[in-house]
């Protein structure tokens, strides 16, 4: 930490003139008018009886009078603070007072000391990764070759001043930037003040100042994290995580930009902007996605202009050359699943029997009885059915040459004994 000693040299009284509203020899009660350019504080003393006092400032960047409230240090010391004034282009400051019924005015004309065009230009700073800050500026067009710039910053009007510890140089060795390693804990009330002055062995160097900037306005967020895309048949659901930020702010103050493009397409779609999101989600209808697409995101504060870098690109959807194959595969898969579901339901709830009832059949026992009755009926008629007839025995009779040799012999199996042979005649035959 370095105290801003160079600014003390600017604590000067330049071309001040004090006069009374009416001509006369009355001495002005306003004395010792001084300006602290770093703190933008105009101070003076009074003598005698002063009943009313005011102060004002006019600058080229703000031609209207700015009249802040006057403050008192002690009985005869007063000051005004112009915290938002920009002084590097010069300023005119005025103190008015009333003493013993007479109006007095003291005017101070402030000019930036040094050679015109020697000071730094286009100062800009950004906070990133929560605790780092980078600042950059351009070398003045009239700056000498040996110019040496210094950057000072402080986070409140009366806060301690720090000089840059890591300067960035251009190819000529001139300081054109600065890196701050550690900013400490951040508060939403932080107002950063910046001042760049310079030194040279040839001439005085003009300083460069700027209005205070609120800390959250300087922060450049990291890209949204954990970007994912999932498909739920009807939509592609894009989700992400909000970035970690330095200041305690609600997610509703963040504004997102989604860049969704079709791979290989020459026409570009406009980014989709989402503000004040309470749920980090975006749904893209499946009907809007034909072929492979890419998505990336960035984020900013809804009230500020600094965008984060783009996130890494995420691909989703199906390439068009595979779209027909995938569609057919999905259709076949759906048909198979439907068939399996129907089979399961049929088995589970016996829908097959309800839809296709079995044809009634005659039981085997009844069929056997019925066939036996048919056979019996046929036998009583004297003509047994062909299937029930006993096989016939075929005999061959051989004749002998002489009856003396005895009766003819039957060649073949012996005949079965006649069951009715020994039954006396005149009796009825037993029923079959």
From TrEMBL:
The chain crosses the membrane at residues 323-346. Keywords: Glycoprotein, Membrane, Receptor, Signal, Transmembrane, Transmembrane helix. Its main location: membrane. Residues 377-432 are annotated as: Disordered. Residues 1-23 form the signal peptide. It is a single-pass type I membrane protein. It is found in: Membrane. The keyword Glycoprotein applies. InterPro entries: FN3_dom (IPR003961), FN3_sf (IPR036116), Ig-like_fold (IPR013783), IL3Ra_N (IPR040907), Short_hematopoietin_rcpt_2_CS (IPR003532), TypeI_recpt_CBD (IPR015321). It comes from the Eukaryota. Residues 223-321 form the Fibronectin type-III domain. The keyword Membrane applies. This is Fibronectin type-III domain-containing protein. The lineage of its organism: Eukaryota, Metazoa, Chordata, Craniata, Vertebrata.
């Amino acid at each position: 930490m370095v105290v801003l000693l160079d600014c003390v040299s600017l604590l000067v009284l330049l071309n001040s003139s004090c006069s009374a509203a009416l001509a006369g020899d009355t001495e002005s009660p306003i004395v010792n008018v001084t300006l602290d350019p770093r703190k933008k504080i105009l101070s003076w003393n009074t003598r005698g009886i002063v009943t009313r006092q005011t102060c004002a400032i006019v600058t080229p960047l703000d031609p209207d009078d700015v009249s802040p409230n006057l403050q008192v240090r002690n009985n005869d010391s007063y000051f005004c603070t112009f915290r938002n004034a920009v002084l590097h282009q010069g300023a005119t400051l005025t103190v008015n007072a009333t003493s013993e019924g007479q109006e007095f005015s003291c005017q101070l004309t402030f000019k930036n000391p040094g050679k015109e065009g020697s000071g730094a230009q286009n100062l800009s700073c950004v906070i990133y990764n929560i605790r780092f800050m980078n600042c950059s500026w351009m070398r003045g067009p009239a700056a000498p070759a040996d110019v040496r710039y210094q950057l000072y910053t402080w986070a409140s009007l009366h806060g301690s001043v720090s000089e840059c510890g890591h300067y960035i140089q251009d190819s000529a060795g001139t300081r054109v930037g600065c890196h701050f390693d550690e900013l400490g804990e951040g508060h939403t009330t932080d107002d950063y003040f910046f001042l760049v002055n310079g030194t040279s062995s040839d001439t005085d160097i003009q300083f460069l100042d700027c209005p205070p900037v609120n800390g959250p306005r300087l922060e450049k967020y990291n890209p949204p994290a954990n970007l994912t895309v999932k498909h739920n048949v009807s939509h592609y659901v894009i989700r992400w995580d909000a970035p970690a930020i330095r200041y305690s702010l609600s997610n509703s103050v963040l504004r997102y930009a989604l860049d969704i493009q079709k791979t290989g397409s020459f026409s570009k779609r406009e980014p989709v902007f989402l503000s004040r999101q309470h749920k980090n989600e975006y749904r893209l209808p499946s009907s809007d996605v034909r072929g492979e697409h890419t998505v990336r995101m960035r984020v900013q504060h809804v009230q500020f202009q600094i965008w984060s870098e783009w996130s890494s690109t995420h691909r989703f959807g199906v390439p068009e050359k595979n779209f027909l194959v995938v569609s057919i595969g999905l259709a076949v898969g759906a048909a198979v699943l439907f068939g399996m579901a129907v089979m399961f339901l049929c088995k589970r709830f016996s829908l097959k029997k309800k839809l296709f009832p079995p044809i009634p059949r005659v039981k085997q026992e009844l069929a056997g009885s019925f066939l036996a009755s048919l056979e019996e009926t046929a036998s009583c008629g004297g003509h047994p059915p062909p299937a029930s007839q006993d096989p016939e025995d075929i005999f061959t009779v051989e004749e002998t040459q002489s009856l003396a040799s005895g009766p003819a012999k039957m060649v073949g199996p012996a005949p079965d004994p006649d069951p009715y042979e020994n039954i006396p005649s005149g009796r009825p035959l037993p029923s079959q």
